[in-house]
Amino acid sequence: MSRIDYDQIVTHLDSPTLVLAGPGAGKTYLLADRVKRLLDLGTDENQITLLAFGRDARQNMRNRLL
Asked: Which residue intervals define the domain UvrD-like helicase ATP-binding in the entry (predicted)?
């Protein structure tokens, strides 16, 4: 995923976005940055839902956001 693609996905907040990429492409970092941007823009944290496959993934995302 190029930096331009990354920035477009993080800043496109008008609708849900599907990101398809292989392992190690930066999907988790991208998701964390997108959530941080939503929060910075004043989105109520109760309006954001993240799903993770397992406890380790959940803790990893939590650590990135806190």
From this structure: 8-65
